[in-house]
Design a protein that fits this description.
Length: 249
């Protein structure tokens, strides 16, 4: 019996060491590789931005925008790449190709890792309604604000009034965006969250607000569920002017 217990103890110890090594690999080593990939795609994007003659059709893995979330500090900045597959997400947050582009009416949807591989979306759970998500493209600064977290019209109206335009507050409180919350936890198969109007079919895209959707795994170290953040465009500024005030605060 003692020998059996000893063998079991050795097996458990070995499993524990392997789990620690895997955690180290996921949380540290993949971050190094992702950082290198992020630097490469960001540098290539900056070269294209500075030389209009070098413009090319956007391909999977190409960076095309920068993402800033001021609530996470001035050092939060990631180049957004085209594509949401594993290879693309190693280089940074990835745009779902079937969704709209920044500033367009409809849904600009972006996926990102929460642990390891750069972990750009590790802190999404800390966002509050009206927090800014800023997208920098070659031509513009697009400022999205996280939508209300509440579900009843009065709460949504009160939360939205802090950052949305009056017409947007009406749509968010009791209109066609009344069911679009700032943060939800859902299943991996809930693809409706990246629809032009999240979880609504048969819409006229020309009548929609420009929104942003961020998706990541939930909880940490698990892919059992998905955390979703929804925001709405409140400001779009030309690149040849000043940066958005929210980035200077």
């Amino acid at each position: 019996m003692n020998k059996f217990s000893q063998i079991c103890g050795e097996i458990l110890a070995t499993v524990g060491v392997l789990l620690l090594l895997f955690a180290f690999y996921e949380a540290y080593w993949t971050n190094i590789a992702a950082g290198r990939a992020q630097d490469e795609v960001s540098a290539e994007m900056q070269q294209r931005w500075q030389n209009p003659r070098s413009q090319k059709n956007l391909e999977l893995g190409d960076a095309f925008a920068n993402m800033y979330i001021p609530a996470f500090g001035s050092d939060f900045a990631f180049a957004v790449v085209e594509g949401a597959n594993d290879e693309a997400l190693l280089a940074g947050p990835g745009h779902y190709p079937e969704t709209q582009m920044p500033g367009e009416r409809g849904n600009f949807a972006v996926a990102g890792h929460r642990v390891g591989k750069g972990a750009p979306f590790n802190d999404l759970g800390n966002l509050n309604s009206c927090d800014a998500i800023v997208i920098e493209t070659r031509d513009s600064w697009d400022v999205y604000r996280v939508l209300p977290m509440g579900t009843d019209p009065a709460t949504r109206s009160q939360e939205g009034a802090g950052c949305l335009h009056p017409e947007q507050v009406g749509r968010v409180a009791e209109g066609d965006y009344a069911g679009v919350q700032g943060r939800i936890i859902t299943t991996p198969g809930d693809v409706g969250v990246i629809d032009p109007l999240p979880n609504v079919v048969d819409v006229n895209i020309d009548e929609l607000e420009p929104v942003i959707t961020l998706t990541t795994c939930h909880p940490q170290f698990s892919n059992a569920e998905r955390m979703i953040i929804h925001g709405m465009l409140t400001e779009s500024l030309p690149k040849d002017g000043p940066r958005p005030a929210v980035m200077e605060a």
